[in-house]
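Why does residue order matter? Because the sequence determines the fold. Keep that principle in mind as you read this record.
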Amino acid sequence: MSKPGNIAKNTSYLTVALIIQKIISFAYFILLARYLGLDLLGQYYTALAFTTIFSIFIDLGFANILTREVAKDQTKGSLWLRSVISMKIVLAIITFILALIIAYFFYSPSLLILIIISSLSMILDSFTSTFFAVVRGFHNLKYESVASIIFQFIVFVLGLLLIYFKLPLVAFVGIVVIASSFNFLYSFFIIKFRLKLKVAPNWNINVFKEILQLSWPFALYNIFQRLYLYLDSLLLGFLANYNQVGIYQIAFKLIFALQFLPMAFTASLYPAMSSFWQNNRNKLQVTFEKALNYLLILSIPIIFGVFSLADQIIPLFKVGSEAIWPLRIAIFALVFMFLNFPVGSLLNACDRQKKNTFNMGLATVFSVTLNLALIPLWQALGASITVLMSNALMFFLGLFSLKGLIDFRTMNTLKVLFKTLLAALVMLILIYLIKPYLNVFLAVGLAGLSYFFALYSFGGINQKDIRDIINSFKKNKL
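Structure:
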C-alpha cells in the first residue's frame, strides 16, 4: 500500500522535473515562434496535433491499466508489460499506415512530410509511455522525472543550433524524433535493468482479451481527450488558416505549460488512489480533498496574473496584439483544467472509468460543436472560448459523478476558494500598481510573493502545509 510520504515525495520529484521541463519548453517555444512566424508555427503544431490524435490508437488505454494493475500486484508486472508490448507492435504499424493515408488526402506534400517524421516520434513515445506506466505502478517517478528534463533539453539545444544555422521547418520536427529516441532507450533500460522485468512480446490471446476488456473505457476516454485537446488546432487550420493556428497555439502553449502542477499530482495520486480505494477509504477522501484545494490555491493566482499581464506576455513572441484576448479568455479554463486532473484520477482509480469516459465524450461533442460554430465567426478567439466552456462542463460533470464514492466536503473547498480569491485580489491590485514600472518577469515574481503572503495571512495555508511541502523534498525511501 502507498504511504502518504511516497505521494509527497513522488509529487516533489515530478513537480521539480516538470517545472524545469516547462521552463525549457516555454523558452524554446518563444524562440521557435520568433524564428518561424505564425504561419510556419501553425504548420508545425498542425503536424504534431495530427499525430498526437492518432497516437491514442496505439495505446488504447493500456498505460492506465498497466499503472493501476501493477500498483495492485507488482509481481505481475512482466506479464502485463509483455502482453501490452505485443499488442502495441501490431497497432503501431496499422496506425502509422492509416495516419499517412489520411494525411495524403487532406494535406499538402510539405505538411505530409512533417506528419511522416512526426509519426516516428508518435510510435517511440507510445512505447516509452508504456514503460513508464509500469514504473509508476511501482510508485516511482524519479526516472520519468529525469527523462522529461533530458528530452526537453535535447530539443532545446538542437533547436538552438537549427535556428543559428537557419534550417527549414522540417528539421525542427526531426529533432523531436531524436529526443523521443533517447526517451525510448532510457525507459527501456529502466524496465530491463533496474526493475529487471521481461520485455519480450507475449502472444497470449487470453491475456489480450483480459487487457482489452479492462482498457476499452480508458481507450474511449483517451480518444475523446485527444480530440478534445487537439482537434481545435486542426479545425482552425481547415476553417481559418495556419496563421490563426499559430495565434491560438501561443495561448494554448502557455496554458499547457502550466499543467505540470496537476500532472505531477496526478502521476503520484493515481496509483495511490487505486491502493486507497482497496484499503483505506478515509485516506482516499483526505488525499482527494487536499489535491483539489492545493490546485485551487495554485491555479487562481496564475489566472489573475496572466489576464492582467497578457499585454506584456504576448510581445515576447514578437507577434501582433491579436493574440492577447485569446490568451485572456483561455486562461480562465486553467482552474477547470487543474481540477479535472484529480477528479478524473479518482473516478479511474475507483473503477468508474466508464463514467469518466462518458463525461469526456459529452465534453468532446460539446467542444467540437462549439468550435464549428465559433471558429468561422471569431477564429482563434472562438477556439479560446470553446476551451473555457468545454473544460467547465467537464469539471461539473466529473464533480456530479463523484457521488457515492467519497463524502466530499464541499464547504471546506469553498472556504479555500474564498481565501484564495481574496489573496489573488490583493495580488491583482499590486500588479496594476507596479506593471508600468517593471518588466513582466519582475512583476510576476513580486506578484507571486504577495499572493502567498496574503494567502498565509488569510489562513489559506498554514505552517503545517509549508512543512509538508518542504519535507516532501527531503530524502525518503520510495
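The chain has 17 helices and no strands.
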